[in-house]
């Protein structure tokens, strides 16, 4: 059996076992409901044979009272069964969403590889809901089975051929329904994949809408989304056709089966093998059997879609982490000495770099990919393919990612803000926040806003300009007061006067603590203790900013052009 199939089954099993009590309660109540439904035509047959045919008013009143009690039980059992099943469905979906969120937010990373943000959201919403619905479907599947069994027992008590027909005919009917559901399962999985991809593309385009408009790329973006959307629509239509074929085929099978039961019952009544009341009960049971078989069809459809979604959930939950857990420890408090020894990762080639504690170092990377790879290694978003990254003499690959990030804070160039106030985005109390705001020139941003630092910021900080977002993001990084701070191009969207102010403020605030500025900004590089040049993934030069600008043409081309 393929590993993915086994894992998807384990997801379904965990969803069911996590709500076992609710599912069991719903199954018992729903089974009582369907069993009671099956008893209704039987009781009517008894009324005909014992009360109507015998002309006894007392017997008629008694059985009508029994019928009323049965209907009251049906009403309450269905109501509470549906409530318990729906609760189990919602709770299971919630638990799956929590598990998906934990995996996506796991410090080891890796879940985002090969997936757009919208795809992850789709798995955490639509797929989680479909898996949760299995908990709502199973109790009614059990109930339908109970209804068939009660019907079969009642028919057996009237006639052995009728009872055997239902008992022996139901299993092959259910197996055929399972086979009919296979194409639906495959097409449902394809539908969810295409839908998730379309959601991911849409999210990506909306996030970059301002940039797309700025470069006049709207037609290309629309064409890309149109193609993705059309593919999603085709997959949805294929899944809808498969579901329609599935439902129609199952309905035809069950209808034919019920017709056979009714014909056999009519033949037995005409031959005198059963009474008129039994015939009425048999015809009523034959009509009633349509309900459990329709439930079987619905349950089979939900299970097919649940299995498809469970496979996608399982693929996400079992995605290997980018970096593994470890039990090493960094000193507390950390000094902040950083050393790279023969680090090769992505575009980096045997990088050796020693940064003493408290030093402010600039890194100029001629290749943007090398800058990104360096940030990944320093923050342990990835472990080097070769070599080691040490902080205070401890190999970061031996330390849990959470602990690494308590000591080494990497502020990426494309850092996003969150919905909330400006103060909540900076998220640090006391003097450190105010100093961070001043050092990053974000205090000027607050002064320009209507409610100052308490001004609400929309999602991703879209209510702010690019330069304002950069300054607030830098303030957030500075306010954390990390022993080692790695900042990537924090001033690309600000004017030169503000950039010079930020450079001075940053150097002042981070004095005595290790700071690595990965940038090509002359203003920032001018305040560093030394600059390291990465060319073709290797360290090719070190020295002061003024010295390198004077002596090296490649350095001048990188930072002054």
From TrEMBL:
**What would you give as a GO molecular function for this chain, any one?**
ABC-type oligopeptide transporter activity
Q: What is its main location?
A: membrane
UniProt keyword Protein biosynthesis present: no
* Membrane-topology annotation of the record: Multi-pass membrane protein
The cellular location(s) given in this protein's UniProt record come to: Cell membrane
- List, alphabetically, the GO terms of the cellular component aspect: plasma membrane
Domain ABC transmembrane type-1 per the UniProt entry, residue ranges: 25-305
Record Pfam families: ABC_membrane (PF00664), ABC_tran (PF00005)
Q: Which domain of life is it from?
A: Bacteria
InterPro entries, A to Z: ABC1_TM_dom, ABC1_TM_sf, ABC_transporter-like_ATP-bd, ABC_transporter-like_CS, P-loop_NTPase, Type_1_exporter
Q: Report the CDD domains cross-referenced here.
A: ABC_6TM_exporters (cd07346)
Q: What is this protein called?
A: Multidrug ABC transporter ATP-binding protein
Q: Which organism is it from?
A: Amycolatopsis regifaucium
